[in-house]
Amino acid sequence: MKDHMNYTLLCDFYELTMGNGYFQTGHAGQICYFDVFFRNVPDGGGFAIAAGLEQVADYIERLRFDEEDISYLRGKGCFCAEFLEYLKTFRFTGDIWAVPEGTPIFPGEPFLTVRAPAIEAQFIETFLLLTLNHQSLIATKTNRIVRAAGGRPVSEFGSRRAQGPDAAILGARASYIAGCAGTACTLADEIYGAPAGGTMAHSWVQMFPDEYTAFKTYCQLYPHSATLLVDTYNVLKSGVPNAIRAFQEVLLPQGITSCAIRLDSGDLTYLSRKARKMLDAAGLTECKIVASNSLDEYIIRDLLLQGARIDSFGVGERLITSKSEPVFGGVYKLAAVEDGAGNIIPKIKISENAAKITNPHFKKVYRLFENDTGKAFADLITLHDEVVEESQPLELFDPDATWKRKTFTDFTAKELLVPVFQRGRRVYRSPSILEMRTYCAAQIDLLWDEVKRFENPHNYYVDLSQKLWDIKQQLLKGRR
Amino acid sequence: MKDHMNYTLLCDFYELTMGNGYFQTGHAGQICYFDVFFRNVPDGGGFAIAAGLEQVADYIERLRFDEEDISYLRGKGCFCAEFLEYLKTFRFTGDIWAVPEGTPIFPGEPFLTVRAPAIEAQFIETFLLLTLNHQSLIATKTNRIVRAAGGRPVSEFGSRRAQGPDAAILGARASYIAGCAGTACTLADEIYGAPAGGTMAHSWVQMFPDEYTAFKTYCQLYPHSATLLVDTYNVLKSGVPNAIRAFQEVLLPQGITSCAIRLDSGDLTYLSRKARKMLDAAGLTECKIVASNSLDEYIIRDLLLQGARIDSFGVGERLITSKSEPVFGGVYKLAAVEDGAGNIIPKIKISENAAKITNPHFKKVYRLFENDTGKAFADLITLHDEVVEESQPLELFDPDATWKRKTFTDFTAKELLVPVFQRGRRVYRSPSILEMRTYCAAQIDLLWDEVKRFENPHNYYVDLSQKLWDIKQQLLKGRR
To answer: What is the number of structural domains in chain A?
Structure first.
């Protein structure tokens, strides 16, 4: 079993130089609000899926500088003694709100908000971003692949190409939340409960005098979970016939009809159609065909369009690294500070690039659902103390073209962010991984198909309340 | 400080089902040889850089199934009681040879070889591949970026976009070995000694009433390491003038002339040239200009070609994920087995795709250097017991076009793989990370510039000895 770890120093060094600076200049206790949000959906998709919150909460709970950390920092020679002393009892004392894992999220909306003294809020930036960026990336990619498979199970097979041990384990976790049926990563099962499975590699076949013996032996050992890898020598001339023989000789006499073959190379459409015919002709109509080999959502879609007879997919490197777009660009931006009297002073980060201007203030996010269809039609970002009245008509407008306005009635508004920490205390316990997976699938069902297209998806509306929009405009006018 | 972890179950589940199968069928003790090699250099480059060996060795040393692991496996219901009992005392008892970290490696040649009982050799596959693939990927990418920077220091800034905690920490480690000057990742410094540094984020500037106060305060706190981030508001109208004022008011009176500004957005060529003129006009000729913002080897090359006045680079997501090609395709293939009498029986994996046919047998790899230039001109893969005689002319031939032959004299032959484990005992201790970095740079200096081109590099020769080539041909003819 993997032990827990002290990730306290998994931070950019500047979090510490800034922390020491805040400490020495009296800014350390200044209450700040930071938002985590992203700007672009990977692969040009219509939405992303939030994941990684449980690891963020674990990190916050365990945050402490041990003797070795303090000694290391002292050796750097740039931190004052009082700051190092302060770090010995450093704990997170603030508040965190976040969307539950598995929630579909859209560009520009905060999916995690921190309220904490400057020094604490700043310090946790790196770990929060890397964890949310990584798992949200893999969850988002996985869900594309799972949707392409159209209900056929997809297993995560990518450990050997993952970017380090955590990428394998946590990637398997995120992929299960986002819809994978299981993983090859045993440790992800032991730690997180993402069900692990797997049968044989080519080396198993090579270890025996011939393919038939290798298959027969495997069926004898594992009669109830025999998936035979049929491409070590020649799929149609050797692999499938030997598999059929092994199934017939070992499984059928025991009354076992559920079994499978796996194709890991070659033209998967052609081979799966031929193999299906051979299996059916042998009476093995319940034998499944599993396919693997550099698959992703596009290849799976094409295979199925071409009539491949594949029952389930194993997906490796292109899922576990999100190969086509391996970066999820979540950012952590200051949205407000509090003055001494507890008043919230909104802050904005302007940019030459209009898309990079941040939404100021302490906010919340509502997801709006049509009552007749149940489908989500927009997200609305409001000030923290605004309430959306479902009984009143709601006017939404495009924040970039404010003359585009539309009024909605008969809708339900649901707040997306839930409290995770209150005054340093963890108040949110993650559901089981299976519950998260079920929740994720249910939330995605509430999106229109148009938002789920792979190419040119419908642009889901993320609007600002009038009050928030007004404050943003005032800040923009007020800046140099 | 991060604790050590038990990664024993970080394996594909099929390693366990096969292990149980080998155990039950008497194959567990069969001595096997497995090679790790790769087929394609990422980004179309001329060579890759091996990294990750120290973590592989740590993993092998710590390999053991604890009570929790055994209990988890028992719960899966597919492993026999004797196998679970056997796992309680499972240790690696075999031999491992590998190239030292930082060594340039080429497609097709083993850069790690395992000789061990089948059950052990099979079991370690997943962790070995994921570790070597990840760190070799980042080392290879980093070295491209470092070479593009032409001697200007490159710092690794990517933790927040890394694929999980290990990807940040171990990625920083690999990037330092391959030539980065440092990292922003504090934990990579604490654990591995990759020097961490960093100064301020935009939030520092936002926390103060104005940019000038933020800069002045920072210079007062850190007069000897002040790198001021000048793009929060407007680089040329506000950032650079405020930085100059802070440097002049705080640093110059103390006689400190070494300082820096950082550009993190906008047209880096234009801004750096303008900023350079302003700094020089203010007498701050020793002030360095640091640039960051989605850089990679291509952008850095273009910036320098266009006359950007940048002294050092911070590189984030495109390095830490190797964004343009985030997968290093190292594989683990059976090369031979031993019979009961200790004879080595070569094994080959054939494929429709000629490039995927493996090189059989227990092998070693020589790197051949010209004595007059000192440069490497080819690698030669031989049988394990062949000796290359430097005093004799050496005939090399293209393994795909054997009529292409050339005879070499006046060369030096150096074996690339060194013993890492012998009969289960670790016999190789990694040099310090700084020694690895120095070694890596020296080895790359021994390659011809033609091999180091970004586009269409010269194809470095990796040839087979006549004996090895003959055995491979015999096996190919002998297969179905």
So the answer is: 2
Is B181 strand, coil or helix? coil
Say if the Cβ atoms of B232 and A184 lie within 8 Å. Answer: no
Residue B427 has pLDDT above 50, yes or no: yes
Does the residue A408 lie in any domain?
A: no
Give the CATH number for residue B352. 3.20.140.10
What is the distance between the terminal CA atoms of chain A, rounded to a whole angstrom? Answer: 55
Tokens encoding A46 = 């219509």
The answer to whether residue B187 neighbours chain A at the CB level (below 8 Å) is: yes
Based on the fold, state whether residues B241 and B341 are members of the same structural domain: no
User: CA A54: distance to chain centroid?
Assistant: 12
CB atoms within 10 A of CB B47: 20
A296 and A334 fall within a common domain: no
Write out the residue range of the structural domain in which residue A288 sits: 151-320
Whether residues A167 and B317 touch (CB distance < 8 A) is answered with no
Q: Residue B292 corresponds to which tokens in the numbers above?
A: 């960051």
- Asked if A25 and A82 count as a contact pair (C-beta separation under 8 A), the reply is no
pLDDT tens digits for range B251-300 = 999 999 999 999 999 999 999 999 999 999 999 999 999 999 999 999 99
What's the complex ipTM? 0.96
Report yes or no: A376 and A325 within 8 Å, Cβ to Cβ.
Answer: no
What distance in Å separates the CA atoms of residue B7 and residue A2, rounded to the nearest whole number? 6
Chain position carrying tokens 């306005």: A405
CA atoms within 13 A on the CB side of B344: 18
Integer Cα distance of A422 and B30 in angstroms: 58
CA distance linking residue A144 with residue A302, whole number of Å: 14
- Give B120's contacts in chain A (Cβ within 8 Å): none
CB pair distance less than 8 Å for B161 and A133: yes
